[in-house]
Fold this protein.
Amino acid sequence: MTEQDVVRVVVVDDHPVFRIGMAALLASLDGIDVVGQAEDLDAAVRVVGEQLPDVVLMDLDLGATSGVEATRDILRAHPRVGVLVVTMLGDDDSLFASIRAGARGYLLKGASPDEIERAVRAVANGEVLLGPQVAQRAATYLTGARTKGVRPFPELTDREREVLDLVARGLDNATIARRLVLSSKTVRNYVYGIAAKLDIEGRPQLMIRAQQDGLGADRPVD
């Protein structure tokens, strides 16, 4: 096997036990070389910039930051890197936000070692590989079959539109979390995902865009 045949991988996860275990699994496979690990967005961007791997295994929950945002930042700087999301989050919002950010693979934690190896090699080859639990939903989304009539931001899910409506009203994440009975971390990930889908940087710009399209209008904050 030549050096060019070796798949170079960086593992990004804020849980050290999972991160170290995943790195050990990948390092045990022929033709895969783990060249770095990171626990948050800043470390991920730095390590990827230093190592220029073929594949980044990306968790979506990175503590104070979002794997969606990390994916977007990495691919903006290094568009040839393949991002494979490996996460506990199997909901539509997380899946679609990851796809919009540029991820080429999406697996749920609990995938078998064979599934992980197959996904890493596929993403390294420029292919798109989604786990069986999410593949059909992704296909439906990408073909536009999820549209439900004319409404603002048809690319957003109902929950994302609900969050964006509250952002348009000027509510902060903690208040939105209380309204929707979610954690502040979950709301933050929603906001990151919405911004990625709409290709908007910054909460003020997101609020303005939402208001321009009719969200948050005539709804006093109570």
